[in-house]
Fold this sequence. Notes:
The chain is α+β, with helices and mostly antiparallel strands. The protein is built from three helices and six strands; from the N terminus they run E-E-H-E-E-H-E-E-H.
Amino acid sequence: MKATATSTVVAVVPEDGSNKIVADPSPKDIGEATSLHALAFTSHDELLLSESEGDFTVKEWDDVYERAHQICCQTTSKQAGIDMMLDDDASGPDMRHFLRSALETKIASDLYWK
């Protein structure tokens, strides 16, 4: 897990006179977006890659970075057997949990014959 990276795509879409940050945007969201951003993070929560397209302010980029960091780097906590997000505003996959479970499944199937 030390050499893995996680990434996400985030769009800034105008909505009701303000801008909304949309993680994992649909093709419709991408078409309507004022800017589109792809960010990747290392397993140590460091920014590895940032590619942006379109018009955006520094504040919007900071908001995009925070959202992408939240998706790629924060994990969910289990409390009383129920998965709970650390931040109620957060929506999106728990990328670290997904990577860990995918690797565990792969290793288990590869070692099944032993």
